[in-house]
Amino acid sequence: xxARATKGKDASAPDAALHDAPPGAxxxxxxxxxxxxxxxxxxxxxxxxxxxxxxxxxxxxxPSAAPSATASAAPSAxxxSASHASPSEGPxxxxxxxxDRKVFAVKVPRGGQSxxxxxxxxxxxxxxxxxxxxxxxxxxxxxxxxxxVFLGESPIIQLGPDDATAEGDVxxxxxxxxxxxxxxxxxxxxxxRKAYSRTALDISALVCSALVVFFLLGKVGGAENRLRAxxxxxxxxxxxxxxxxxxxxxxxxxxxGLLVAIDAMKWVLRLGAAYAWLLFSVxxxxxxxxxSERLTGFVFxxxxxxxxxxxxxxxxxxxGAIAGLAVVLLVRFVALFFGSVVRGETSLPxxxxxxxxxxxxxxxxxxxxxxxxxxxxxxxxTEEGALGRASAIALIALGxxxxxxxxxAAMGVAVVFGRRLKVGEYAEVGGKSGLVRGLSLFEVSxxxxxxCEVRVPHLASLxxxxxxxxxxxxxxxxxxxxxxASPEKVKEVLEKEAAKAxxxxxxxxxxxxxxxxxxxxxxxVVFSAxxxxxxxxxxxxxxxxxxxxxxxxKRRSKSEGAP
Length: 563
Description:
By secondary structure, the protein is an alpha+beta fold. The chain is built from 17 helices and 15 strands. It has helices at 2-10, 13-19, 27-31, 39-42, 58-61, 66-73, 115-130, 161-167, 172-233, 251-282, 289-312, 314-343, 356-380, 386-401, 403-417, 487-502, 533-547; strands at residues 94-98, 101-106, 138-143, 146-151, 154-159, 241-243, 246-249, 426-429, 432-439, 443-447, 453-457, 467-470, 473-482, 508-516, 519-528. The relative contact order is 0.03.
């Protein structure tokens, strides 16, 4: 090549005309072309010897004149190289493709490869480089009379001056730049096509996955409905769960637990399917793919941490499970034992049958509280664990719920030991009046006017005043006397009958409450321990007033201005 470049510099104007001669020019014109003088000293023999072998660079220097000159003078001279053949000789043309897209043409052979082989190698290299997402920039690396076109770090094709000459470009640099621009445009178009195809495929996958999720959820919902219907229709087929001969879970409780578990599983599956579809959806597209990692970390990071803590606490969990099972069995045994007492199957001399049910509740609550308070620190080895806090919370809740009961007990201590009330006397406690029949730390037992027992907690005395009525209760009678009767006469009759009813002479009262044109109203109060004292008093008053000729009046309503 260097020799060729040198000859190109020394060639005279006729040499230039020789290079530009058309392929169809007469052989005489080619044969009459003068040979440069400096070529003679370089040859092995005289220039006039027709059988002398020409120098190797002559065909390179004069590609058009060599065939005609040597065809008659030296038939054994070597043919010119295919890589240096002129485009005017009509070499085979091949095209570099990406799929069905034509990128650029290769018209001359090079480096022992034909144009078709060069185009095929470049197409293969281009296919591999296009699939590499990191290969984005097309560049040209020139070194002397060789230019290599790269896509990313992958070489696509080598170009030489003959390629530029075959395409009619003024230089190798211009030809390489044109090839690079065509290659960049083709690569961009191909990648856009792949991006559009991938987007369409991703959208199709998104829609299909949503349909699959809805289909699976429908199947799961149908199975859940059938299972629920079977459990509700065949409760007798559910077994008893027994441990050591003790019914731990009865069929009714098992049925309720299964129904709750089915509902919970249904929602878990729904949420899991929605989360899986959402995660799959955001991972399909480049713009939303980073959110899939965040979503995965948001859900699975806490679960992973929880599983790690559970694994580290596995021995404690096993011991706690055994202790919990023991507590459940003990609570169940206590419930069954006191249940047999309620049914009369078991008799206890110290526990009546009607107290067995509340005693069972108290004993079972006590077992659970003792297990949480004492057994939890023994199992976990620390009082600061979750079970220890749960026991503290249970005790606090129990204390808050028992606050009214404890307050009544505190008031009862003051009432009972302070002897503020006496059994057998009448009193008004918490807004209720009656005969005191009993006192305890929590309540006062009263007997009302009709003989019913009324239990009033001591805490009610904080809201209502307590009235001590003594051994006889007050009986109050209201009556209306018609107008025209003398108030003094009426009052005398009423006092006479009240004194008879009270049997004490001084523990009674008669009061005139109101007077108008229609009559007068009176109130009679007597104290008596007789339950029928009020009826007897009314009968006696009515008889005495009738004997004195005093007529009873009509009681006014509140709408008529009654006091």
